[in-house]
């Protein structure tokens, strides 16, 4: 099953380029041209990733990002915008964006970042709690046994300090 990406930008040429390169990479691409349309599509189409411009009509990308996160929606967000100063980058990330790129951009880099974000998202989604009396948490090849303060990688017990263990067994 192909993953769905929502591209949100008010510039037709940017939307056309992003749609083309992402479809060539195997993604199903939907588009929105303003912030209100973006929020509607996030809620109705459930994309696996949103590529979001900051400067949008009706509702800007920062407000869109804040609204998505306030709705407890964990869809990954890649901000792709002309706003390139440090303040804007940090603000976007602090408000819930998972990554931030500036225009002009490399099409190959956009695809690489989309793949990386979706790969991380898939790993998190695959994390599952095993239904047994230990309540083990398994993420890829890592198994965490919080009740016993043990962490295994490939079924090998890792020798960790108490401080390191606390990161895994919160």
Description:
The two termini are 34 Å apart. The strands form two sheets. The chain has a five-stranded parallel β-sheet with strand order 2-1-3-4-5, with helices on both faces. The chain has a five-stranded antiparallel β-sheet with strand order 6-7-8-9-10. The protein folds into two domains: 4-126, Response regulator (Rossmann fold, 3-Layer(aba) Sandwich); 128-168, Arc Repressor Mutant, subunit A (Orthogonal Bundle), CATH 1.10.10. β3, α3 and β4 form a beta-alpha-beta unit. α1 crosses α5 and α2 runs parallel beside α3 (61-70). The chain has six helices and ten strands; from the N terminus they run βαβαβαβαβαβββββα. By secondary structure, it is α/β, with parallel strands linked by helices. Residues 128-133 have low confidence and may be disordered.
